[in-house]
Design brief:
Layout: H1 2-27, H2 45-48, H3 71-74, H4 82-88, H5 114-119, E1 133-135, E2 137-138, E3 148-149, E4 154-158, H6 163-174, H7 176-186, E5 193-199, E6 209-215, E7 225-229, H8 232-244, H9 248-258, E8 264-273, E9 275-276, E10 292-300, E11 309-312, E12 324-327, E13 333-337, E14 343-345, E15 348-349, E16 357-365, H10 372-375, H11 389-393, H12 424-429, H13 439-444, H14 455-458
Antiparallel strand pairs: 1-4, 2-3, 4-13, 5-6, 6-7, 7-8, 8-16, 9-15, 10-13, 10-16, 11-12, 11-14
């Protein structure tokens, strides 16, 4: 069942990764100056049917992964070639299921060894092949015998072995990691405020990019900051980085597991923190029919640190019988959270180390006429703008479905932004397009505030790889 269901998407994925990796090898210098020294199963059908707490006898035993690395990861100087990227996304690679066998990033960063994931997680954490999805299940510490599903839409998905290297290079080219550290240790925002900043070009055809840093309200007992896209140009840039990171494998797995018709990545950004107190347990999505998700991928982790998140089986926020399980992330997998998947930041204090914890956060959905307004209603991000459902509808099925993929993305369909207010020019001249919490101004002055890309500049139907490189 598992291999027959995914065979076609796997073949598409391997071909796509090999092609897109040619761009990576030519256009991205991923030379490493250090070595990495850290070193088919199907998800239960009960999740798709909305049934929890079903024991799956086919679940693999908790592994003891090898600490050996691939020859590529152990090489002192590593350049990601097309062949390496294809191998990194392959199910048949000798190291496909070795979570520590990652292609290293070019900045010398080394993620935690996978042994620490097993040590600091209350869930079954078998290593995953690229594109392999497993529902998140509690281990024997919580229930007799373990293996019970935490939430119907909470899962882990194996990442291509080169994903971390590509995403870290993108963040480095932007100066994002440096900006995160500067923000946390020298210029933190007040709760419920934000500011714009510009970054050097990266996957943008030489165009400077715009970002919005924001800090949530005091209900978050932490210094969590979001570093989100500030406009459509930046959004499109991030999409190309994720394409080169091989995330088509992730979309394939989600769509196949939950029987979706199409997928669109409608929002993406970075998260970072240095400390956290009592966790604010929440879900990102509810009542979407199991068609909207958030994926968390660790970008930087603090050496020697413990669990990073809680994921709960609670059904409501104050469920007295809910169990909050600890989990530690790892760049070998992405954590998928869908409808009613309660989660929260784990307590931590990294400030004595001078380091940060950072992740990539990806929001995606199978858009339908019934859920598009709900998906577009997220009030937090500056891009896409809250309630911009008409723009979102132009993206439907863009990244997966009917043969579409991130690797071969040709973009959205036609969309024309509009200024609804008469005084937009004056507001822009006064700097009101780029002040803290400028959501309302930008929503009503879309053209003047340059939130979206006009069709003549967007180049409808042209492969995004020819524009955002």
């Amino acid at each position: 069942m598992f291999f027959s269901r995914r065979a076609a998407s796997l073949r598409r994925r391997l071909v796509a990764v090999a092609l897109l990796s040619l761009l990576l090898a030519v256009g991205c210098d991923t030379t490493s100056t250090c070595s990495n020294e850290s070193g088919a199963s199907d998800a239960s059908s009960c999740a798709a049917e909305g049934v929890k707490n079903v024991n799956d006898d086919k679940e693999e035993a908790q592994p003891n992964p090898t600490t050996e690395t691939t020859a590529a990861a152990a090489t002192a100087t590593t350049t990601v070639t097309a062949e390496m990227a294809a191998e990194a996304s392959s199910w048949s690679s000798p190291d496909a299921k070795n979570p520590d066998a990652l292609i290293p990033s070019n900045d010398g960063y080394q993620p935690p060894p996978y042994d620490t994931v097993l040590e600091h997680s209350d869930f079954l954490m078998p290593p995953l092949r690229p594109g392999e999805l497993k529902m998140l299940r509690f281990n024997e510490n919580f229930y007799d015998g373990g293996k019970y599903i935490a939430q119907n839409y909470a899962a882990r998905i194996g990442l291509p072995k080169h994903a971390m290297a590509v995403l870290r290079k993108y963040a480095s080219d932007l100066g994002a990691l440096d900006e995160m550290k500067r923000t946390h240790y020298h210029d933190p925002l007040e709760p419920n405020s934000g500011r714009f900043f510009k970054s050097p070009p990266a996957y943008s055809g030489g165009r400077e990019l715009k970002w919005y840093i924001q800090r949530p309200g005091k209900h978050y007992d932490s210094d969590l900051h979001w570093f989100g896209c500030g406009d459509e140009w930046t959004h499109e840039s991030f999409l190309r980085a994720m394409a080169d990171a091989g995330l088509d494998a992730v979309l394939d797995a989600i769509a196949d597991e939950f029987d979706l018709d199409g997928l669109t990545i409608q929002g993406v950004g970075f998260l970072s923190a240095t400390y956290g107190g009592e966790s604010f347990m929440h879900w990102d999505w509810s009542n979407t029919g199991g068609r909207a998700f958030n994926i968390l991928i660790p970008l930087e982790q603090v050496p020697g640190s413990g669990p990073e998140l809680y994921v709960s089986d609670r059904e409501v926020e104050d469920d007295p019988e809910g169990v909050d399980g600890e989990i530690k992330l790892h760049p070998s997998y992405g954590l998928l959270l869908g409808d009613d998947s309660f989660h929260g930041t784990h307590e931590c204090d990294h400030r004595p180390t001078g380091k940060i914890r950072a992740s990539v956060s990806i929001y995606l959905a199978d858009l339908t006429p019934e859920n598009v307004m709900m998906v577009a209603s997220d009030p937090t991000a500056i891009f896409p703008l809250p309630h911009s459902y008409k723009w979102l509808w132009t993206q439907r099925g863009r990244h997966w479905g009917d043969g579409r993929s991130m690797a071969d993305d040709i973009g959205r369909i036609s969309w024309q932004p509009v200024d609804f207010w008469d005084d937009c020019a004056k507001l822009a001249a006064d700097g009101e397009c780029e002040v803290s919490n400028a959501h309302e101004t930008r929503n009503n002055c879309q053209v003047t505030c340059k939130v979206f890309i006009p069709d003549d500049e967007y180049q409808l139907g042209v492969p995004r790889s020819k524009i955002f490189y």
